[in-house]
Amino acid sequence: MKPRLTYTEHTELGRVLAGIRDELTHRRTQLHTAYPKTGHEAIPARTLENAVQAIDAARQTLEDLCYREHPNNAHTHTYWPNPEHRATITTPTH
Fold first, then answer.
1. Per residue in 9-26, is it b (16+ CB within 10 Å) or e — as a string?
2. How far apart are CA 16 and CA 89, in angstroms?
3. How far, in Å, CA of 14 to CA of 22, rounded?
4. How confident is the model at residue 60, as a pLDDT?
5. DSSP run (H or E) holding 30
């Protein structure tokens, strides 16, 4: 059997996935504001929405695994942390 994530690893992964989700949601909103919501130009925003949904599905499954593997430590904030505990995604500056 493969080694499972430690509770600390689950917590860090939850913070990172939440931060990535926040950034993708922000960028999707930015695209909705700048481009039409239908037609070819709407495809990037829809693609980001699909990515957000995929991240949420992964977070839900990982949360279930965390509860199974670490029942004494797991809680909903592991994969759904409050904003102040989410990883911040930074972009390079030019």
1. ebbebbbebbbbbbbbee
2. 8
3. 12
4. 98
5. helix 7-34
Instruction: Give domain limits for the chain.
Output: 20-84
The whole-angstrom separation of Cα 49 and Cα 27 is: 10
- Say if residue 94's pLDDT is above 80: no
| Pair of tokens at residue 76 | 């909903």
Query: What is the number of alpha carbons within 13 Å of residue 45 lying toward its C-beta?
Result: 16
Q: Which pTM was predicted? A: 0.91
CA separation for the pair 51, 44 (Å, rounded):
11
φ, ψ for residue 87 (rounded to 5)? -65, 145
* Tens digit of each residue's pLDDT (9 = 90 or more) over 63-83: 999 999 999 999 999 999 999
Look at residues 90, 88, 18, 19 and name the one whose alpha carbon lies nearest to residue 60. Answer: 18
**The token pair that represents 35 in the structure block:** 């481009």
